[in-house]
């Protein structure tokens, strides 16, 4: 299949697109019709006429500072800037008269008089707009020079000819690991400052000084890029027209000559990127302007943190060992696969068909995931397949399935541009889903209201030019009580949308629900003692959501990872239905998915009880589809979920596991129990990039490929199916789908896929919601959102528009039930966990990039009161103990967490936050209760005994025998 | 899995369905257990009930009887 290759430099239209009534004007005699509000510059670009420009770019609003884009307009005086002049009906524009040419040359001459002429050795040579514009305006001479005897009147020469220092010159700032800031090349066009404000919303950059002293400055006086608020999203680098802000990779490798459009493999936003290549070397990842999830924006992970693909820790050869106390032995693929196949078949012969299983990866492609679950169902002959979504969003599947009839978010990300009131609950988008957060913040700056429901004061509560209308800092574990209290206010104060409920929802179920929720025990006043949320502010928040216009709810793992995770998801769905906030732009229920392909992994039948497309295995007609195609019998009983697999392993009835792209030992709760389960198995096959923590207990290691090395698709949180395209050949020799296929064949299957497109054909053939998906459509449209079928051949951006997938929306009674995990005298604090911007999940990828500069270790956030009680000072080593285990890490004292609550991340294996978490789980799905663990904190001298033992065991388990000569 | 863990998981399911309207909680619990619990887990539940069913919510025991009846019919 032909790669989707586009030129490195796309057309820049100069100013952002507008939507409005059509306006017709003529530019250089060419008639052109554009929406009202469009700039003359953009209209000219639409007509194919490029007006010279420096300070304008279509990712930010026009600024009108460079004066290079001046034009003449019939009947108007002077020479207006085309970037800031809106079109008008009948306008006649001339872009190239002698008069404007002369002005442009004069402007350019001034710019160049303060710019070094080292173009041939400059990193931006060939990719510099200043260079292009000098050429375009025909600049041939620069007449300005410093006056005799005076100081240098420029910013780019460090010293004058006598050796005296130039006070205007500033050294390069290369504090950021990924890009440099070279003030000597800056033309002060302010594009970086505006990108930081408008696109990213961080406001880390400013122009300091006036006139000739104007400088781009990161943070306050004394800051460099690294110490400033800069989040390294790369928007400024992308906006910079010169080499002032430049990727270090381009400085090192040269400018790219081609690019391949692909999809980021980090979070569930699923940003589209151009992988820009120089020969066969990846030079940089640049967010793709036409990517419908990200609209040309990126975060530090997708933009810069791809270096793990070439990290020295990457394992490129298959390895096996008889027992896990032995060192690894590198072998050829054939030997590894036949060893694995023989072991799995041997286990099944001894312990039965159901004694082995698989874990599919939410980081791998849809096609790969589909094959892994097919391996379990068709080759192993059981339904023992599960995926990491078990431990993050399985309650979303259950809760939204029960209420709406489908397991997915209802909107696309563009929807946020039309929302008026946003609830963010149990999510921290600026860290976990940064590109979505930037889009949300842009809408908030334009006036939308925000309600944050989170135990911790996340950045969105208050950051530059964004302030939540309400922050409800609930006690961990009381989500259901808070959501129900909001519903109570809405129902008892008569704020619900009765017309919507009558036409769109099951009225009888609603009657039950209304009676239930109106009970005074759900009132904010009654639950205040329990939740810690002041009743008055909860009431105000509920009223705002019900009456403030389009209301949208965005939620994350702070909702799902609880004993009542599924119940909270239902409660959220209830809130949306109560207020009529379903089925149009700007509203909806939007789960923010953790990993890149969580949605896809769930869609592809990774769960043990359902075949692809969320169809329960008990349905004979659904099984028949696969039975006919695969020529096997499908087990009608549900298989084991991940926690059940580990329990069964400890019980001795589950003996073999093929685990693709997941590190259950680090990511799953109650590490000691996970380790015991893994240790009890006879064959653990880890298929991954690195010797992860789970691999310490593995017998077979199959080296995996990165997203840069294979073809396929990812499905993001908005159900968008996006292409992943091969940029470089797999360093390990094979794409992951090929490896799964080789394992299946070693076990006797007759699979013969030669390209992932064929796997997608099989998915489309068997899964109604994917019926219309094929690679040709993805090439044509760029991406589509499922369902894609005869009714919606181009996909479905908004769900439940005219009716719910299940018919009538269903209100479900959501009684609050306290978790068994409670604080008490021994464990008086509640631990909750999360992630931070620069690291991703277990950190296997991001820890192997320069992102560690921002987060080298996990720390424990603790409130000053709790710290003082325990004699803990900032930076002290503390011991964190729960009834499951203990670990040590450094304390960070902050009032972001409430008294009684502590918080940490789980990105580093040497901290192993999951030694602390318990085996409590969601009632419906067994999704672990990561977000509530009763703990005690005390001073400590350093790593715990367990951590030291663990490190020693890990080192022992990671030994690799030198290859035989 | 440990009996305590199984009992807790089964009771959690019972607690949810108990709060739902209608008088068919046992049926719904039975349905949930059949849909999501692997047969090994249901067998462990049967065995625990045969041994007295210590700690289990009565609705779980009622649900278990329905599962067994359905299996016998099936």
Describe the structure.
The complex is a heterodimer of chains A (965) and B (74). Chain A is of the alpha/beta class and 965 residues long. Chain A folds into 5 domains: 5-137, Ubiquitin-like (UB roll), CATH 3.10.20; 179-310, Alpha-Beta Plaits, CATH 3.30.70.20; 319-392 and 598-746, 3-Layer(aba) Sandwich (Rossmann fold), CATH 3.40.50; 394-591, Dimethylsulfoxide Reductase, domain 2 (3-Layer(aba) Sandwich), CATH 3.40.228; 829-957, Barwin-like endoglucanases, CATH 2.40.40. In chain A, the strands form 10 sheets. A 7-stranded mixed sheet of chain A has the order 14-13-28-27-26-15-16, covered by helices on one side. A 6-stranded mixed β-barrel of chain A has the order 32-36-33-35-34-37. Chain A has a 5-stranded parallel sheet with strand order 21-18-17-22-23. The model of chain A has no long low-confidence stretch (mean pLDDT 94). Chain B has one domain. Helix content of chain B is 76%, strand content 0%. Chain B is built from 4 helices and no strands. Chain B has helices at 3-18, 25-36, 39-50, 58-73. Chain B is globular and about 30 Å long. In chain B, 36% of the residues are buried.
């Amino acid at each position: 299949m032909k790669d989707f290759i586009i030129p490195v430099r796309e057309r820049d239209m100069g100013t952002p697109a507008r939507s409005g009534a059509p306006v017709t004007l003529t530019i250089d005699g060419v008639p052109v019709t554009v929406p009202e509000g469009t700039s003359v510059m953009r209209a000219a670009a639409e007509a194919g006429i490029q007006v010279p420009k420096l300070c304008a770019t279509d990712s930010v609003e026009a600024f009108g500072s460079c004066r290079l884009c001046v034009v003449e307009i019939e009947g108007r005086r002077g020479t207006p800037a085309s970037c800031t002049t809106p079109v008008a009906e009948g306008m006649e524009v001339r872009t190239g008269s002698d008069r404007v040419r002369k002005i442009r040359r004069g402007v350019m001459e001034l710019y160049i008089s303060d710019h070094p002429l080292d173009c041939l050795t400059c990193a931006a040579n060939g990719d510099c707009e200043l260079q292009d514009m000098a050429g375009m305006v025909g600049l041939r001479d620069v007449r300005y020079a410093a006056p005799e005897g005076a100081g240098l009147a420029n910013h780019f020469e460090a010293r004058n000819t006598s050796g005296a220092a130039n006070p205007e010159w500033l050294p390069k700032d290369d504090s950021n690991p990924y890009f440099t800031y070279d003030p000597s090349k800056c033309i002060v066009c302010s594009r970086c400052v505006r990108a930081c404000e408008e696109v990213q919303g961080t406001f880390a950059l400013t122009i300091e000084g006036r006139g000739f002293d104007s400088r781009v400055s990161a943070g306050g006086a004394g800051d460099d890029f690294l110490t400033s608020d800069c989040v390294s999203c790369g928007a400024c680098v992308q906006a910079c027209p010169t080499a002032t802000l430049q990727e270090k990779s381009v400085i090192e490798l040269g400018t790219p000559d081609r690019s391949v459009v692909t999809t980021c493999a980090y979070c569930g936003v699923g940003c589209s990127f151009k992988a820009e290549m120089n020969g066969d070397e990846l030079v940089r990842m640049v967010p793709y302007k036409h990517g419908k999830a990200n609209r040309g924006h990126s975060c530090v992970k997708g933009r810069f943190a791809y270096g793990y693909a070439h990290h020295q820790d990457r394992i490129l050869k298959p390895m096996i060992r008889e027992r896990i106390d032995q060192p690894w032995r590198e072998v050829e693929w054939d030997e590894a696969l036949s060893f694995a196949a023989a072991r799995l078949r041997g286990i099944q012969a001894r312990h039965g068909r159901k004694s082995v299983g698989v874990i599919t990866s939410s980081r791998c492609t849809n096609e790969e995931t589909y094959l892994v679950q097919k391996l379990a169902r068709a080759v192993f002959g059981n339904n023992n397949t599960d995926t990491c979504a078990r431990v993050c969003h399985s309650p979303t599947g259950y809760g939204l399935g029960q209420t709406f009839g489908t397991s997915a978010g209802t909107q696309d990300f563009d929807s946020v541009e039309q929302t008026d009131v946003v609830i963010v609950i149990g999510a921290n988008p600026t860290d976990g889903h940064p590109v979505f957060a930037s889009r949300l913040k842009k809408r908030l700056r334009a006036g939308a209201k925000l309600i944050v429901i989170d135990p911790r004061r996340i950045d969105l509560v208050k950051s530059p030019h964004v302030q939540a209308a309400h922050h409800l800092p609930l006690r961990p574990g009381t989500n259901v009580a808070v959501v129900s209290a909001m519903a109570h206010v809405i129902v008892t104060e008569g704020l619900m949308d009765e017309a919507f409920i009558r036409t769109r929802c099951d009225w009888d179920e609603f009657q039950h629900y209304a009676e239930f929720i109106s009970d005074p025990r759900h009132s904010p006043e009654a639950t205040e003692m329990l939740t810690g949320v002041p009743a008055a502010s909860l009431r105000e928040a509920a009223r705002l959501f019900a009456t403030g216009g389009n209301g949208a709810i965005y939620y994350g793992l702070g909702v799902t990872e609880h004993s009542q995770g599924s119940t909270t998801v239902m409660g959220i769905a209830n809130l949306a239905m109560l207020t009529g906030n379903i089925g149009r732009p700007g509203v909806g229920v939007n789960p923010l998915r953790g990993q890149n392909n969580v949605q896809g992994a769930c869609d592809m039948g990774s769960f043990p009880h359902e075949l692809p497309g969320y169809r329960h295995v008990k349905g004979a007609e659904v099984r028949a589809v696969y039975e006919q195609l695969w020529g096997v019998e499908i087990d009608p009983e549900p298989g084991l979920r991940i926690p059940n697999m580990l329990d069964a392993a400890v019980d001795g009835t589950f003996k073999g596991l093929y685990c693709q792209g997941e590190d259950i030992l680090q990511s799953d709760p109650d590490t000691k129990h996970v380790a015991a389960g893994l240790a009890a198995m006879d064959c653990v096959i880890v298929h991954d990039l690195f010797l992860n923590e789970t691999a310490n207990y593995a017998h077979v290691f199959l080296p995996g490929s990165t997203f840069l090395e294979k073809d396929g698709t990812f499905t993001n949180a908005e159900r968008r199916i996006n292409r992943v395209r091969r940029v470089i050949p797999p360093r390990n020799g094979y794409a992951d789908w090929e490896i799964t296929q080789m394992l299946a064949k070693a076990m006797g299957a007759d699979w013969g896929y030669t390209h992932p497109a064929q796997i997608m054909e099989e998915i489309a053939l068997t899964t109604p919601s994917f019926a219309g998906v094929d690679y040709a459509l993805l090439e044509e449209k760029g991406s589509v959102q499922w369902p894609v079928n005869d009714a919606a051949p181009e996909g479905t951006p908004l769900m439940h528009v005219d009716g719910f997938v299940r018919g009538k929306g269903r209100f479900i009674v959501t009684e609050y039930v306290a978790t068994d995990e409670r604080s008490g005298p021994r464990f008086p604090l509640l631990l909750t966990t999360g992630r931070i911007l620069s690291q991703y999940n277990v950190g296997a990828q991001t820890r192997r990039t320069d992102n560690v500069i921002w987060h080298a270790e996990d720390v424990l956030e603790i409130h000053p009161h709790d710290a003082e009680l325990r004699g803990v000072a900032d930076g002290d080593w503390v011991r964190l103990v729960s009834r499951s285990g203990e670990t040590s890490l450094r304390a960070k004292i902050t009032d972001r967490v409430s008294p009684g609550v502590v918080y940490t991340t789980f990105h580093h294996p040497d901290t192993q936050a999951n030694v602390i978490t318990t085996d409590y789980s969601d009632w419906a799905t067994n999704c672990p209760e990561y977000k509530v663990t009763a703990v005690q904190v005390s001073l400590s001298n350093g790593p715990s005994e367990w951590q030291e033992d663990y490190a020693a065991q890990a080192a022992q388990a990671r030994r690799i025998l030198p290859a035989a000569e | 899995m440990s009996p305590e863990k199984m009992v807790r998981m089964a009771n959690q399911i019972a607690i949810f369905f108990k709060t739902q309207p209608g008088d068919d909680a046992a049926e719904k619990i039975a349905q949930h257990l059949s849909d999501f619990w692997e047969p090994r887990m249901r067998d462990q539940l049967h065995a625990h009930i045969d041994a007295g069913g210590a700690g289990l919510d009565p609705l779980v025991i009622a649900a278990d009887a329905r599962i067994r009846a359905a299996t016998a019919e099936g």
